[in-house]
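Lecture notes, part 5. Sequence design as translation. It can be helpful to think of inverse folding as translation between two languages: the language of shapes and the language of residues. The source text, in structure tokens, appears below.
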């Protein structure tokens, strides 16, 4: 029997292999859905940390099981990637008391106190705690369980894409997957202290959901809402993740010989919705603040949580103007700023994607799709604007490259012929240089991922050693 693939099933030894029969699958799906809502209720009902945390993990387990039921299989690539990410997470995750002040602040500023640039996730915490005391242990486990869930979703998406690929392109997909898992902006970057708990992990989950629903004619009408949730999680994502959603919608428009009016309408509706929400935020957000200044708000929050945070972080997060951030940026970003090194060490991977998209542009013959392949490159200068306003260069580079990787894997998953052809033609180069590719992966993985601003301590030591060696 020839090779074939259907989503949710895998060809093994010439036959389709599924985990559950159709009847059992429906029963388990109904039970799992019910358990998810029961767990949400119990997390909110039990205000004891131990019980709330236990039900929180149970909720995520049920959601992951629902994903397995939806696919009705787990392949070896998914299991391997999830185990790899899980071991990394357990090995480097910081203890609850080591949460940076700025990250802790992000989980306290719910809409109860006004509309800030990052209130959405904090409002979920406020919902679970019923507006009561917010324990740092509950926050830590909320972040930890969410990171496990993100690792599982990442593993499923990557593993399914690899399993789905034909043999002539599978090697390149494995090559790029290994690069994604080992590069300086790999998922492990969110496991280390400084980045652990960044709200990017929740925005990434929304992006995976967008990739799932965008091909569903009816369900994808929620994309404008999902885009609003992304910027509600953190306004900075307007520079990084919103362009990704826009590119996906434009792909749905460009890939058809006849443009579907409802897809164009969806794209326009998403842009208009985001514009209206952004303007309303600029005009009215400050008027929603319950507290007039950071000092009084800081004193109040200290009675509602045992998370360690500073008044300065609270001010910069909620009360600071764009001018304040620009002044702070100007005083911080100097010639010897470590963030510059973060950009420098990631230029080769950015260049790799630019070359790949240019090859796709040259290979494509259809005019609309040809222009589409310029979009992943044009996204880069738009994202670069964030580097001239805020100085968390490490965080920005992680998102820049995550968008590039996600675009490639999405186009490979939907079987874009141009992307797969260019990938196939790149395989001989990978085979010829397999030894050096593996060596490069090992070196990059050893050096470690970037931090909030600069590269890992090992890379910084290399720079300092080199400077001392040449006498600078």
């Amino acid at each position: 029997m020839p090779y074939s693939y259907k989503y949710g099933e895998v060809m093994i030894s010439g036959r389709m292999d599924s985990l559950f029969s159709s009847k059992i699958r429906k029963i388990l799906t109904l039970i799992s859905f019910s358990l998810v809502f029961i767990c949400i209720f119990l997390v909110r009902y039990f205000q004891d940390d131990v019980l709330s945390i236990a039900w929180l993990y149970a909720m995520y387990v049920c959601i992951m099981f629902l994903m397995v039921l939806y696919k009705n299989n787990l392949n070896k690539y998914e299991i391997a990637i999830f185990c790899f990410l899980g071991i990394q997470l357990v090995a480097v995750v910081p203890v609850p008391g080591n949460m940076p002040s700025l990250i802790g602040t992000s989980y306290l500023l719910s809409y109860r106190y006004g509309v800030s640039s990052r209130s959405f996730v904090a409002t979920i915490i406020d919902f679970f705690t019923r507006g009561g005391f917010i324990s740092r242990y509950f926050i830590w486990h909320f972040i930890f369980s969410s990171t496990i869930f993100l690792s599982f979703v990442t593993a499923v998406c990557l593993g399914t894409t690899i399993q789905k690929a034909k043999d002539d392109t599978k090697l390149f997909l494995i090559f790029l997957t290994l690069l994604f898992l080992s590069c300086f902006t790999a998922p492990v970057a969110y496991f280390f202290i400084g980045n652990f708990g960044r709200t990017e992990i929740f925005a990434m989950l929304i992006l995976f959901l967008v990739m799932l629903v965008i091909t569903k004619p009816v369900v994808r009408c929620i994309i404008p809402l999902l885009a609003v949730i992304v910027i509600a999680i953190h306004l900075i994502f307007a520079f990084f993740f919103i362009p990704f959603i826009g590119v996906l919608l434009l792909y749905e428009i460009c890939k058809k010989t006849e443009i579907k009016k409802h897809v164009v309408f969806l794209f326009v509706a998403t842009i208009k919705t985001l514009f209206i929400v952004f303007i309303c935020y600029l005009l009215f957000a400050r008027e929603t603040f319950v507290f007039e200044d950071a000092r009084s708000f800081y004193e109040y929050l200290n009675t509602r949580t045992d998370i360690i945070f500073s008044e300065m972080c609270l001010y910069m997060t909620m009360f600071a103007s764009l001018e304040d951030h620009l002044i702070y940026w100007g005083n911080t970003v100097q010639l010897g700023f470590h963030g510059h090194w973060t950009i420098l060490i990631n230029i080769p991977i950015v260049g790799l994607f630019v070359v790949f998209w240019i090859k796709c542009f040259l290979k494509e013959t259809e005019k609309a799709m040809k222009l589409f392949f310029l979009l992943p490159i044009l996204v880069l200068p738009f994202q670069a604007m964030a580097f001239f306003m805020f100085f968390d260069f490490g965080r920005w580079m992680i998102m820049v490259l995550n968008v590039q990787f996600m675009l490639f894997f999405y186009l490979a998953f939907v079987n874009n012929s141009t992307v797969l052809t260019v990938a196939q033609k790149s395989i001989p180069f990978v085979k010829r240089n397999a030894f050096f590719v593996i060596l490069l992966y090992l070196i990059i993985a050893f050096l470690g991922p970037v931090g909030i601003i600069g590269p890992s301590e090992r890379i910084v030591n290399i720079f300092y050693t080199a400077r001392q060696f040449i006498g600078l």
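The translated text above is only one of many valid answers, since several sequences can fold into similar shapes. Residues 17-73 form one domain.
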